[in-house]
Queue: 4 jobs
Job 1
Amino acid sequence: MSKFRDLVIGTAIASSLLVTPALAEKLGLGRPALPEEVAAWDHDVRPDGLGLPEGSGDVLTGEEVFSEKCAVCHGEFAEGVDNWPKLAGGIGTLDHDDPLKTVGSYWPHLTTAWDYIHRSMPFGNAQSLTPDEVYAIVAYILYSNDLVDEDFVLTRENLATFELPNAGGFFVDDRDTVELPKFSVEPCMTNCKETVEITMRAAVLDVTPFDATDDAAAPAAEPAPAVAAADPELIAAGKKVFKKCASCHKVGEGAKNGTGPLLNGIVGRATASVKGFKYSKAMADAGAGGLVWTEEALAAYLADPKGYLPKNKMSFAGLKKDEERKAVIAYLATFGG
Amino acid sequence: MSDDIAKGTTRRGFLSATAAAGGALVAAGAAGAATPDPLIMEKQPWATGLGDGVDAVPYGMPIKFESHVVRRNVSWLTADVISSINFTPIHALDGTITPQGCAFERHHSGAIELSKDDYRLMINGLVETPLVFTYADLERFPRVTHTYFCECAANTGMEWAGSQLNGSQFTHGMIHNMEYTGVTLRTLLQEAGVKPEGKWVFVEGSDASSNGRSIPIEKALNDCLIAFKANGEALRKEHGYPVRLVVPGWEGNMWVKWLRRIEVGDAPWEQREETSKYTDTMADGTSRKWTWVMDAKSVITAPSPQVPITHGPGPVVITGLAWSGRGAIKRVDVTVDGGKTWHEARLASPGQPMALTRFYFDHVWDGTEMLLQSRAIDETGYVQPTKAQLREVRGVNSVYHNNCIQTWWVKASGEAENVEIS
């Protein structure tokens, strides 16, 4: 501790001379944070459990919550969909080529999973989970990694002491002692080697995005307006709004189902009618019940996806502004089935 | 045609352009022209008509002829574009300052729109007085201006196992260099009063990812900035408007954007971005953590795969960038023969600590193939290692902190390719 104080004082002197104007006294700017304001923002959780709220959750509840709110990207068994992160598996692979890094195989602290899910998930609807839901989801992730049985209950009391397989697998940066002496050597300037051979070429793999496939510069093909009266400005605004949807939904020529169903022809289409897409039970039931995606129905759904159709699996908070909903529907209406 | 050459990504266009330009050069050389140049002989519309008035463009974008100098992303890298990264077109820039409009972006939950009026910054934890600042409050603290590079720890990360991407934009474009204006983090921490047991700060963003990192108090009190201007103007949305953290020389993930909270604590938080990510797995399966400093590194930005030589043999400017998270760049060496012989490059200006340094090597190309490399040396004496040297220590599963020497194979045609050499 005394060492730390010395450092602070030492830096203070250097700073007043070189870096910033000297601040002998506080300026009295800002205002004291109220305790309830700190409580509203300070949600972080440390490995020692500091910051964990009261609560608990079991594996089976976790499976239900996970299926509803997480599986759309992470898969029903936490195995990951497409390029989305895999949360389970990979234990014992860290010294292999292409190790599989998951909560089970790689993460050192379970508190980190709780903290991250609580503050940052679900993607597109962060900070919507209750503490009990987070405990349950984390319990299910442990179960998916074969680290607990299905009757396991995760609580504030047992979370911080739960030891993950790779807890001891990390060491603090040692480049200063391992690499710097090795690399800090006056380098050779002449006659450094006799021959040079090319041992690998990027053209062999050929993964560089070229203009045709990955081009920010080329103008995108504009959709042909299907309705003569459509407002081009509204459609353009809708195209922008659609960026919020585009990570899961595709439209246009050649579009396919992704995390969400293909949206060509969505306006006026029967609900849950895209072939090859696995809908939630809630969405399939709505389709079977005769729901059609009229502009009005879409607007209501987009305003509050979970409120309009409880238990559907679209993990999106919704479009709160009426003009955004109108614009994106106008944009979608330009794509025929 | 000239647009295609500039893009450097249209192989057919490049080849026919070289044939035309190279042919003309071989025939005419520097000696003279066979026929008068119509661009000189004929009156041109821009020399006779009128251009735009001063009210045409209240805030300017680059002229249309530069429309290829843009950020690009690599779609197969990530699951979607909201939580992803793109690349600065370093192959087409010169000097050291990166214009904000083409400086790489990395978001975890997308670039948010947060106004100055809606902005709040909180300091809490082990401080005498937890505080809340508005944007207007921040502007009243004593201000500083410094230039620093910001490099993503994953820059060049796709190249660990072998040459993958053809272009310095893609291999080294997760970097930018800006002149930041703001308040030192030290000033704000002093205002709140750090308690003696405070050894770490936690910094957190306002966006949905609420990206958070732990920073040791020594660094926080040393040179970190609470920045609100870059290159003289407000930060762009994608770089954290209205306020971001600047952590000089350390990995970009710590430069939290839309900074909303600074908490002082007595231990690190071990957040997702400092455990499951931004840790470096060695060949034996153990992993380094807290690898904050960016090692000395350099790359030749041109010629390179996106910037082939189109003029045939003769004078050519070989140029690139060098930087180090441990201080200033002292020297950059360049080789054209794959490292048999090295030459000291010319620095555009003396290296500045933790900022990009531009180097030039003025070469007369004989038209035969070249294996171009650059090698940075910083003020600590650290010499940028080869990929083989790095792999010897770290294996190939590290992902982050790949600062190896890069090789471009320039063929007799002038085209260049990303390669590895013995």
Note: Chain A has a mean pLDDT of 85.
Job 2
Amino acid sequence: MLGEFRLWPRAASTVAEKVDTLYLFEVAVTVFFTILICALVIGMGVIYRKGSRAARANPPTSKWLEAIWATVPLVLVMVMFAWGAAVFYEIKTVPDGAMKIDVVGKQWMWKLQHANGKREINELHVPVGRPVVLRMISDDVIHDFYVPAFRVKQDVVPGRYSQLWFEATEPGTYHLFCAEYCGTEHAQMIGKVVVMEERAFAEWLSGTSSDDPPAVAGEKLFERMRCGTCHKQGPGGRGPSLVGIAGKPVPLKGGGSVLADANYIRESIVRPQARIVAGYQPLMPAYPQLTTEELNQLVAYIESLGAPGDGDAGRSDTGPSTPVEDATPPDENEAPSTEGENE
Amino acid sequence: MIDVARKERNYVDADYSVWSWFLTTDHKRVAILYLISITVFFMLGGAAAVLFRLELMTPQPDFVIPETYNKLFTLHGILMVFFYLIPSIPAVLGNFLLPLMIGAKDVAFPKLNLASWYVYMVGGVLTVAAIVFGGVDTGWTFYTPYSSTYGNSAVLLAGLGVFVVGFSSILTGINFLATIHTMRAPGLTWFRLPLFVWAHYATSLIIILGTPVVSITVLLVAVERLFGVGIFDPTLGGDPLLFQHLFWFYSHPAVYIMILPSMGVISEIIACFARKKVFGYHFIAFSSLAIALLGFLVWGHHMYVSGQSMYAGFVFSFLTMLVGVPSAIKVFNWTATLYKGQVSWTTPMMYALGFIGLFTIGGLTGLFLATLGIDVHVHDTYFVVAHFHYIMVGGASMGYLGGLHFWWPKMTGKMYPETWGRFSAIVVFVGFNLTFFPQFLLGYMGMPRRYHMYPEEFQVLNVMSTAGASIMGVGYLLPLGYLLWSLWYGKNATSNPWDARGLEWTIESPPTPHNFHEKPVVTTEVYDYDPEQPLPPPSERVVSPAESETETVQ
């Protein structure tokens, strides 16, 4: 199926048809005005060619004509804006209960990990008819996760999480491209998205995998690095307790608060001094030696501490969507986010 | 009076020494210096395009290695944007014509004008040096952290070239603003100014407000690369998206730096060859300013999928849509100018009418990219490549070529062969569409830009595009040939071969070093054409200086 000549991309996600409908509307507007302008230019160029007999008396004045051709485009572009914004809102708003997958982009490959720990490289298997949300981060330069058949893409930026969701509607194999220029082998940072029927996918997912789920790996790392010495489960530690903080606002030293989303948790490990929680001293050293994946695991573990009792359960596939702030720079996390509204 | 004019040497013949060119402060000679150097950079950039279009004939990387491909498209982008599109019309046609159109002896700061050319050349030499010393592979957009930390090519040298050449634009912009404000001939009120002058006024505003931002940005990249200060690289505590904000804050308005002067040229050509005042003169004049202003508020539309907030996306999409309105007004006004006119299908007019068609497609496809829901899919694909080439090549370049033909007799005193001119306009138009139209389809199919290899299903459209590029290449070589030919063998041009209005047509072709023998006084409205009167045949188009004086001098 890949590789055959076509002039229209396959549409295989819930948003694809909505994007296509809007696109066709704008194609219609474009074709109409292009033909109109070309016909007028050529037509009048011929009718009023030099020395032709066409009458030239009383050319029109401009006021009312100007008003018409200022208003018509204004109305049209406002329709395009509103319609496009509505589709965009849907593309950006992750449905509750989306299946979570971690993505790390690096020169020049895609590394993916499912919630049960199963890893893939340059290939992503997903079930049909189920929303999937990718939490993505780059190891080096900016990449971009792009699946044309789903009509979605999102930059994958170093140092901060971004997210992308889709719900595939057609089983099949689709192109995965890196769309943001990332260096010499940019064009080879490509792969496949394999959309499978739910049962086949479940079978595939439960196949052999020696990797721990990210949250479990994170817990081991947490213990190995003795994070718990300061971050005790209860109150009284030198650092704040991490139980139940994920997705909640945290008061900051010096006033204000920040949403403890994945980006804030990650920042607090990489650059602990950036935003100190109110009531604590800036004692924590930075951990620049942690790899992107280890950071992902720690973040997953801390997120899994959502409520006391299910701390070891790993990240649930069906639980309420955990806010992942992709939208705002780290110091603007107070700003309302789409994801926040879904809760 | 006539005798005095005839005896005086024109600006080319006034002095033949080499230093009379390299130390000239005559705006016309500076324009010629720019014309020659811009043509050289254009050909270099074009050659790079030919090479990577050849690579894209097949899906496999078989013609050049990936590093080379990446350096080629980077070279193409940097040279075409910073050394061809941005300076082409202002520095060549603007420098030559602006003082003539407003009845001035020169620009306000002639030495600064010459300095701008030297600055331009230094920037150009640095950039070419960057190619010699290993090339640059960051793309013309220099996105961080690839450019600041990871790219191992001659990024600093190329960045320095871009940094330096920015100052040449700034000097030109300052010069134009001062000239237009202070040196207009008596009677030449703001609303008697040709739209070419209005367009350059708006362009100059953008240049002096926007260019410093990109200079600072390039400087910050250099500081990060050289001293490891964390500005854009997150591992150093920087923010990679900050670069994109700063870069597009200049580089989106830069698009209007490229297209507005071209719109000015189109207004002049259409008025002359439709023998009518441009329809809605005031609307066109003010829409230039509106575009210049709005252009500064839309940079975020390059960043819908960068990780920028969704709400920022809404704002930038809304503002970008508004730019579509003044652009649409211009297109309708040019078209309406033809109504009840006397249309001559001359070479400049064919370029101008081609501009209208291509700019219409380029502008409308810009709306697709401004539409949030569609841009998520087509961002960073060939759809974007096609769109901006429709604006930059179909718009800016067609205007430049049209203007070059229109004012060639004035600049050189020679006529080019008309048949060849029309032929080249058609070849460029056909080749252009064949090159870039398939790229819209490729983009919606999902082919990302900056890929040296691609899945097989994209090959047919890529072959079409490459075929078109070769036709377009011929279309660009033709004017180079016959315009050079005309310098030696072309018929001598009269002072006003198109029977056009405007002060530049009241003086000799080519003009004398000080342009006007007496200070002109303007008593007539702009574009004072009579639509009832067709363009007279060439033999009757000789307007003697004496006659022209009665038109413009009291």
Note: Residues 308-343 of chain A have pLDDT under 50 and may be disordered.
Job 3
Amino acid sequence: MGELFAIFISASLVNNFVLAYFVGLCPFFGVSRQVSTAVRMGGAVTAVMLLTSLAVSFLEAFLLPPVPFLRLISYIVVIASLVQILEMAVKKLSPVLFRELGIFLPLITTNCAILYLGLFQYARGYDFLQGIFFALGAGAGFTLALVLMASIRQGSELASVPAIARDMGFALIVAGSLSLAFMGFSGLFSS
Amino acid sequence: MPTAPTTQDVVRSAHCGTGGSAALLVETTRRQDLLRGVWKENPVLVQLLGLCPALAVTNTVRNGFAMGLATAFVLVSSSFFVSSLKRLIPHEARISSFVLIIATFVTVVDIFMAAMVPDVSKALGPFVPLIVVNCMILGRQEAFASRRPVRRSVLDATGTSTGFLIALLLMGGFRELMGSGSLLGVRVMPHNFEPWVIMVLPPGGFFTLGFILLALSWTRLRKAETGRMTRPRRWPHGVLTERRAA
């Protein structure tokens, strides 16, 4: 149990996907203008991460050992199909949620955080249960970073930012400061 | 005339869609195809595409260079194939077909690098396989290669990859110079220079790109102020307006 907890904390805080590994930057800058949309995007990404982790465990256990060179291709195909299936399921089960998530779902296919999660899970040799906790931690960390970023951008909407630092320049400096703050977690675990 | 990307453009390009060059059906010459992506529509510095590798692997010049070359190979060859096969790919399945073509070339380059330059491959880690989901590559396929002749697509891909490589070298150079006082592993700063370790750590990536964007928009605004370029449609309020009023 302790080890699973360590995996969760490590994936969400110490090795935050966005702020320490630089994956999933597109939604991090693109969908971080409002806190409410940031929360929804975070939820959608976490759900896809969980499914991806399960799929990767399955692929590595049954299909990929004889054909390792197909790893990348099969991962990306599986992720794209999963997102499509999830989109259809959400549309059928909860039209309200579907309308709220809107365009975010299909965009997750090209989110590098998802593919990175699969590759990382394989490289670390996580088993089924460890993979689930890793995906949950990564999703939580992604959501946390997105919500923090959105809160700062929303809060500074009326601030008088110099003309040269409008929009992306400002967002990048804020992201750098956030990343600096998250480096403080690096002493949390020795491993 | 290229202008600063509007907020909507940034959002659209951040969503890996056909962002950036929205006016893609405007006829261009071959020369423009080649040169456009290098600086005026630089994928990283202007369109803000492919930020993940641009920030993650540029802690040294060597890593940035290797990443730029790997991405260039994938972009040029997949543009060639997408453009040659554009009549065979059904419209509904085009994104998945593009991704499959890209993934094939990424697998090739990943295996090649692991065999030929194992230490570089280890340093880049999972960012070589992650070229598959680089928005810049998919964006060029969707916006250009899937509707243009082969030769022009290859020209466009070459220009865009050159721009990507330039951006990576710029960032890698600055971060390595500041972070470890050296360039390509050779020490260039005076011996009493204290390296800014933060520049080779993750926050340095964000700060470096932030500084470069600030510098670019500073020159852009100055040009607008001195009237050498057309004035932006909406005059950005802030420092400059105050100075003008004073």
Note: The longest helix of chain A spans residues 35-63.
Job 4
Amino acid sequence: MLRRILIVVLAIVVLAGGGFLAWAWHDELPAEPRRDASAYDPAVVAKGASLAAIGSCAVCHLAKNSPSFAGGYPVETPFGVIYGSNITPDRDTGIGTWSPAAFRRAMHDGVDREGHHLYPAFPYDHFTGATDTDLDAVYAYLMTREPVRHDVPAPQLTFPLNIRLAAAAWKLLFLRHGEFVPDKSQSPEWQRGAYLAETFGHCSACHSPRNALGAEKRDEKYAGGIAEGWIGPALNAASPAPAPWTAESAFNYLRRGFDRAHGHVAGPMQEVVEHLRQANEGDVRAMATYIASLNGVAAPDAAAKAEQAVKNATSRQWPIPGRETTGSGGSSTTGLDGAAIFAGACATCHHDGGRLPISRPVALGLSSAVNGADPRNLLQIVLGGIHPAPNERGAIMPAFSGTLTDPQIVALADYVREHFSGKPKWNDTGTALEAIRRGKNS
Amino acid sequence: MTIVLTINSERHQIDADPSTPLLYVLRDNLKLNAAKFGCGLGQCGACTVLVDREPVFSCLTPISVLDGRRVRTLEGLGIADKPSPLQAAFIKEQAAQCGYCIPGMIMRAQALLEKNASPTQAEIRDHMQTNLCRCGTQMRILRAIDRAAKDMKTADAGTTTGAAR
Amino acid sequence: MTKPFIPPLSRRALLAGGGAVIVSFALMRHGLAQEAPAGPKLPGDLSKTPMLDAWIGIDAQGKITVFTGKAELGQGVKTAFIQCAAEELAVQPSAINLITADTGRTPDEGYTAGSHSMQDSGTAIRNAAAQVRDIMLSLAAAKLSIDAGTLDARDGKVSAKDGRSLGYGELASGQALHVAAQPTSRLTPPDKLKVIGSNLPRVDIPGKVTGAPMYVQDMRPDGMLHARVLRPANYGARLASLSADAARGMPGVVNIVQDGSFVAVVARGEFEAINALNVLSQNAQWSDGPQLPEQAKIYSTLTALPSQDKTILDKGDPAQPGVKRLKATYLRPYQSHGSIGPSCALAIWQDDMMTVWTHSQGVYPLRNAIAKMLSLPSDKVRCIHAEGSGCYGHNAADDVAGDAALIARAMPGTPIRVQWMREDEHGWEPFGPAMQTQVEASIDGQGKLLAWQYDVWSNTHSMRPGGPGNLLAAQYLAQPFQPDPPMPIPQPEGGGDRNAIPLYAIPNARVVSRFIPQMPIRVSALRGLGAYHNIFTTESFMDEMADAAGADPVAFRLAHLEDERARAVVSRAADAFGWTKDKPAAGWGRGFAFARYKNLAAYCAIALELRADRTTGNIELGRVVAAVDSGQAVNPDGIRNQIEGAIVQSSSWTILEEVTFDRTSITSRDWSSYPILRFPSLPQSVEVHIVNRPNAPFLGTGEAAQGPMSAAIGNAFARATGTRIRQLPLSPQRVRATLAT
């Protein structure tokens, strides 16, 4: 890692001698005069609201105990912490002085109104493909929000990345400008979905692997990535979900956070779903169509395979509590009998029928967290649980990080893997847990 | 099967299925009243106890995982005549109505104060969010936790001064 | 706790039917008589139970026992009753042993509901205690041959200035207290009060914060078994088939009790009972029940049902157009009591006697219902109140007591403890009814209210037992009982139309109460009954009318309030909040609301501020300031606790809560599908100001803030966002949807 960073530094030094500085230089754009909210067309604002929801802007541009878009959310990257900026129309601490052109430049080129390069934690490598009309709609939406005076901490990055020019070097290497052009041979809905997923949605940002400099690997797009210590499961042919995604199931998942063949949304994706709920329904359907196509399974096959996966998983379900308690042997007194832990800690909800008709989870055999090659997501869910957004209905799973010791969590996760997935054992569960406990995100 | 549990510093031999949740062992076998059945789903916190230093939902904690670990319930903090600082603060603030959620509230707050002697309002609210109260005593619960934190610090300061003399 | 754990019957009960002695007493203005005088009404519930020894007993050692037919529900009444008794008996509060609702020992005071406890029982206890103290004085005067006026009653004895003294125990021997109460008492004057008006710490809190056995859930007599009842997924379903063998063979299972479609499993341990219930549920088939209405159309469904209409206020011409006339419809969904601890009861059938420990709000009505269900004479059933998790109205407390009695009847001599599961509590409790209100009003040229037309549609707000059919289990027996026909609760208290009559001076007004007997969803009493929605409507619309008049909402209310106590409470809340002084911060809105609960109990006004996040739809509550007038405040901190609690609970109802259902069953079955307020969403602060009224009658307080809080939130939301939401709850989803357009 260090070696790679030194190469970048070297690259900067070399390039600095030539036209790099000239290339990297951006003028400050003039401050926009204050405009009343009524100056914006409500239809355009509504369109912008939906696109902002698809972009999950409020996830990073959010301050705790502060209204949306006031910024302050710490985005943990392998290179340090970057705080989501204040994008309310406050003139001092937000983007109240930005013109539409300044906003477009930020979204397309990753340069703020004053001409500073923005770090690529802000996914302009995706937004760069958005149309000007759409960006103007998002601009109108943001400019009609409540201005909030809120200063955001400066990024805490390691040298040399703490020099903003490093972001310019990054762009030189990885940013491909230009409007996104979908595959015209596909249906209009697919094309719409592709555009939204690749630009505002920036789905591949979490669902693709990244190189050492934090850029998505183009040749491994949708092969699965990492975000905030969670696996963004592969969406291509390598998808770990036993039920192939269909347009319908992907829509259920994206829109409602639940599908009967995939289960409840968890981890960072939960916040994405919170926002997609507020987006235009047709747009979310279009994205679902596009996402479902990534695995390469033809639609009718996918539906049949999904049904089969549901059947398979149901046959592996945990029996109703009480009918059978300890399952797979092993010494219960050591506390490391995964079956006994499951019976007492999990089976109240994760069983195969009878009571709890409403929020009972789907069969664990359908979960990508249980079926994936990496135990990380299952561990994350066991450690932290699943919690709905404040004041919302939604599945609640309590955190077990304090209830179980690390060896017990490993025993439980391995048991769940073995009992419900039918896939090969994980052999690095303990290491993965240790990494999460240490707070390592990659 | 016999399992040995350490509860409020006392060792107990429990004859029960290892998957039995701690809550039922506390209430049925040990006749301890504080931990309450609220939902059995880990959604309300009425059954909260401490395992080592962590607050846990005893309704979803199989006794098999408690070997060699320290379980503390509300009964272990103090008694009516000699309440713990947190219990005393709940009494001073009259922080209860029906009181059914209170044992869980106190145990969860105890875990916070053991790790963070001076929690902010936001930290307290954040930490307590797993626990529900229906009577609406939360404002008093917040005051009681805040008061206990301050009382404990004053007591600590007193001890230190005493020792210095 | 060993076998004969049933508390003994009281001396009062043993004496029942015995003769009474006539005591003459110089200090009392009226001669004491054997019978209650036919003249003036006796204070509080003395009017129903006039004999003093039904309320207060003093044994030979001077130990004082006070009896109340009301129950501690977490509202702190035990402490307040003790204060009333201790004050007038001139003893330390710790000298009072209080016995609450027990059909074997205490007066029948009906239900502990409607914020009646202090008005009915507190008043009775205070007056009884004052009269008993005076009897002590007069008896001592007779014994010491000294003028009663020179004697001093203090700390359980009567002392003369010459140093001689007699203990209450010596004086109260025989049947000295078996006398009827008098209409008036020598109450301690306001300036001499020591215990009443003080913040006596709650007597139950030390036990509650240290894990003492305080609740019916904590009772475990020797030989007790745990039971769980199998309930179908939907209303009205009948058991089609049941294979109980698998459950019967499970570890710890002792019995499966079945009567028709009522099935329960009895086991040694609680977890064993739960496990067996799970297995039992998988081996049971149920018939379909009746289809439920479509939730999206619930209000039009309800209002289309036949209704019994009654005009409860009619003056002038409410159709007068005035200079401005507005009309609006307000909606309130079904809402859950949502007790944190599922309902629980303990019963034993022993020696031809059924004893039930219950957290029911009405032990006497419950006793009668259970007796009828079991075909027993009512004196063969005893219901004893034991605390449970807070109920806030008629939750499943009575139902589970019925369950326990049925199971205990099948297993003579065995104490049976039944607790409901979370999903049953959420799915089967009788909810607070959905309601619709429509209000139309006009203002005159001076900006004053000219006319007011108000219509309220509602189911009943009480399906309490009552008849045995109001117990859920009784509806499922082989010989089932039908629920009682629903009845409206008449004015002035009202049920669905509680607080439907505005307290404001309006020259032309009509209020029509439209009572809908048919109940597609099981409903009953939830804290405040119809007052919650009627106050939400009235107080929201008062703001709408204030806007129409171009008036400040507080000034507009004051301009229409004639009751001085109402005005005082409104002004106090507004002043303490700083209503007129400073402006809200950007994005924040302020709201105000006021009501006198039932138009005859406590006065309560609330001012608050909030802001709404347009993206998430979340409402953030800032400062909340309330003022309350409960008459003579017995325990100011107890009043504060009640009002604070009601503010938080009403916030939760108003912002979050709505029971959900599909065409077959209730779908909000736990806290994930029926979220309530969690800590991070609490108001920033809540402060309560008490307007004390020394010597004024006690006014019920427990439900007083429920309505004003909802309207204050609605009004503040309208000011913060420029948009009014007239359908409860103001949930994140509804806020988002409303503000998006």
Note: Chain A has a mean pLDDT of 88.
